[in-house]
Amino acid sequence: MSHALIVIDVQNDFCPGGALAVPGGDEIVAPINAIMDGFDAVILTQDWHPAGHSSFASAHPGKAPFELTEMPYGSQVLWPDHCVQGTKGAAFHPDLRTDGDLIIRKGFRSAIDSYSAFFENDQSTPTGLKGYLETREITQLTLVGLATDFCVNFSAVDAARLGFDVTVRTDLCRAIDMEGSLRAAEEAMRTAGVKLN
Fold first, then answer.
1. What is the pLDDT of residues 58-105, one digit of tens each?
2. Catalytic position from the list 15, 47, 113, 151
3. Catalytic choice (9, 13, 81, 113)
4. Is 151 annotated in the active site?
5. What's the rounded mean pLDDT across residues 16-37?
6. CB distance 117 to 151 below 8 Å
7. For 121, what's the count of Cα atoms within 13 Å in the CB-facing half-sphere?
8. Given 47, 106, 158, 173, the catalytic residue
9. Would residue 26 show up in a list of annotated catalytic residues for this protein?
């Protein structure tokens, strides 16, 4: 049974000083690096938005960051511009090891956001990660990274729904925690059968 570490979105814009900074986001970099060699595979995900992405508040006149809007695929939080392709903000944290097996870029379709490492926010457009894991005969996943209540949560729930054995190392994640979003995410992960360590 092969076991992969999935490192979610440890990028400059999600770390202190970034456009959408997660408190303490940089604190997890060194401990994530330290555990990488204990896994059969290491996969990193990278938020990778084109300029003017539909999830950016700046693309919606009169809307402010963190407001909700309705998209064809459901409710969408509007974010500050972040992780724009090719920018310093989209780059991995400079201290993060990036010598893993695969990098999955997500959120590159301008009309739809993507929190999960497995699907766009319509819950049906795949990123290709499931097929890669199946080809490698990987059945166990440990997730770490940013942010616990958004991309880690969506990735973990999708992974469990797809039949993987999923653990989230909450000590190696950090949350945005908007209006109780962390507690709701933890409940959603537990309900899906995700182990929280």
1. 999 999 999 999 999 999 999 999 999 999 999 999 999 999 999 999
2. 151
3. 9
4. yes
5. 97
6. yes
7. 21
8. 106
9. no
Q: Where are the alpha helices (DSSP H) in 36-180?
A: 129-135, 153-161
Confidence of residue 179 (pLDDT cuts 50, 70, 90): confident
Give the closest residue to 106 by CA, choosing from 136, 151, 68, 56: 151
Number of C-beta neighbours around residue 62 at 10 A? 6
The model's confidence at residue 178, banded by pLDDT at 50, 70 and 90, is: confident
Q: Measured at the alpha carbon of residue 79, what is the angle toward residues 154 and 44, in degrees to the nearest 5?
A: 45
Separation of alpha carbons 3 and 61, rounded Å: 45
User: Known catalytic residue: 81?
Assistant: no
Amino acid letter for position 190:
R
**For tokens 């994530």, what's the residue?**
32
Q: Which two tokens stand for residue 104?
A: 């999955």
Task: Name the residue with tokens 């969506």.
Answer: 154
pLDDT at 63: 95
What is the identity of the amino acid at 145?
A: G
**Which pair of tokens denotes residue 17?**
């000083």
pLDDT tens-digit readout, 186-196: 999 999 999 99
> CB within 8 A of 104, min separation 6: which ones?
43, 44, 45, 46, 117, 127, 128, 129
| Residue whose pair of structure tokens reads 């797809």 in the numeric block | 162
**Cα three-residue angle 34-40-46, rounded to 5 degrees:** 65
Lookup: tokens for 102: 């695969």
The pair of structure tokens assigned to 68 is: 């909700």
